[in-house]
Design brief:
Elements: H1 2-6, H2 9-51, H3 61-72, H4 81-100, H5 103-109, H6 113-123, H7 127-140, H8 144-151, H9 155-158, E1 163-164, H10 166-169, H11 172-181, E2 186-187, H12 199-208, H13 210-217, E3 221-232, E4 235-245, E5 250-260, H14 264-279, E6 289-296, H15 299-307, E7 313-319, H16 335-341
Helix pairs in contact: 2-4, 3-4, 6-7, 6-8, 12-13
Length: about 350
């Protein structure tokens, strides 16, 4: 009988569905428990802040509170003086914002406590930045280590800062979302590249580090191809890098320039965007977006160039902080060599 059951595909699928549902319920339970615990921390943090207004509790308030709570709740390990201070800081950091934005309180409950402590340590005096990273954590499902990496960057200052014509060329409901997708500048510090690199070397390095490049681009990007071939009429053209954004439901054409932006770059990028709309875009896809990433740009020239195009285009710079001297180029390990050693 057991052999018949083992060989029954319907039974096997049923077993697998049970396992999948069980895992889903575990995840939901963890999320719910995390939310309930953070709600408790928020409430306790507000009470601590209120009690501390009274001078009678003195400098050892957290020490005595920790001892008393740990004695009454010996199975709990969350009442250390340090953690109690975090609860107060948690409440004080966001209390003013939640009064104006009720949804924020629910957002805060969706982020693990360990993530919150990192954000509190970094931005205890800047609630705007703290909220930004809370929402980025939810949006991208960042692990604690990934969050920590992004906290060390100027992501808040770069997010949505590309020079674009999106407001003039996209429906109003989409333009802000697409603008938020951009950065300026893009950080390519993950690349191992020499001082005298050319465009091909830069594009090859980005493709070899495509996972990190996707992380830098942001949420929802899927890599379609490098030097993507398009037949436009009788001419064969090659897009530097083509992506599809699964949240914006559109293709994203990216052209890489290692020099300074020139207005003629807009004509080329606009042509590629228009061609992708005509050749690749299918029913359900939104309008294709073009992004030029260059070493430097004159913002006035870039602004006028964008105004001349009817396609939704953006212009950003890129930065590479670590470049190796050209004579060391032959001694640098390849990606394959590094992976082999690992």
């Amino acid at each position: 009988m057991s052999e018949l059951i083992k060989n029954d595909s319907e039974y096997a699928n049923w077993i697998q569905s049970i396992c999948n549902e069980f895992k889903k319920s575990q995840i939901k339970a963890c999320v719910k428990v995390n939310g309930e615990m953070l709600g408790f921390y928020w409430k306790l943090g507000s009470q601590i802040a209120e009690k501390k207004k009274s001078a009678k509790y003195g400098d050892n308030f957290f020490k005595f509170l920790s001892q008393d709570l740990s004695e009454k709740l010996p199975q709990s390990h969350c009442f250390s003086p340090t953690n109690l201070r975090y609860m107060e800081r948690f409440y004080l950091l966001y209390a003013g914002e939640t009064a104006n934005f009720p949804q924020l309180e629910e957002d805060l409950k969706s982020v693990p406590w360990g993530h919150h402590k990192y954000i509190i340590d970094r931005f205890s005096g800047d609630v705007k930045k703290a909220v930004f990273f809370v929402r980025k954590t939810i949006e991208n499902n960042w692990s604690r280590s990934v969050l920590l990496n992004f906290l060390d960057t100027d992501l808040y200052e770069r997010q949505g800062k590309a020079l674009t014509n999106f407001r003039a060329t996209l429906p109003s409901k989409n333009s802000d979302l697409v603008q938020e997708m951009t950065k300026d500048p893009y950080h390519f510090d993950f690349l191992t590249i020499s001082e005298r690199y050319n465009e091909k070397e830069l594009k090859d390095a980005l493709e070899q580090n495509i996972t990190k490049f996707l992380l830098e681009l942001g949420k929802g990007f899927a890599f379609v191809g490098k030097e993507y071939r398009l037949m436009i009429g009788k001419k064969e053209k090659f897009i530097d890098m083509l992506f599809y954004n699964i949240f914006l439901h559109c293709y994203v054409v990216i052209e890489i320039k290692t020099g300074e932006f020139d207005s003629e770059n807009i004509g080329q990028l606009g042509t590629y965007v228009s061609a992708v709309n005509g050749i690749l875009k299918k029913e359900g896809d939104n309008q294709t977006i073009g992004l030029l990433i260059c070493k430097s740009k004159d913002n006035v020239l870039a602004k006028y160039a964008l105004e001349s195009s009817s396609e939704p285009l953006g212009i950003s710079e890129y930065e590479i902080s670590k470049l190796f001297p050209t004579e060391f180029k032959g001694t640098l390990p390849t990606i394959e060599e590094i992976e082999a050693n690992l």
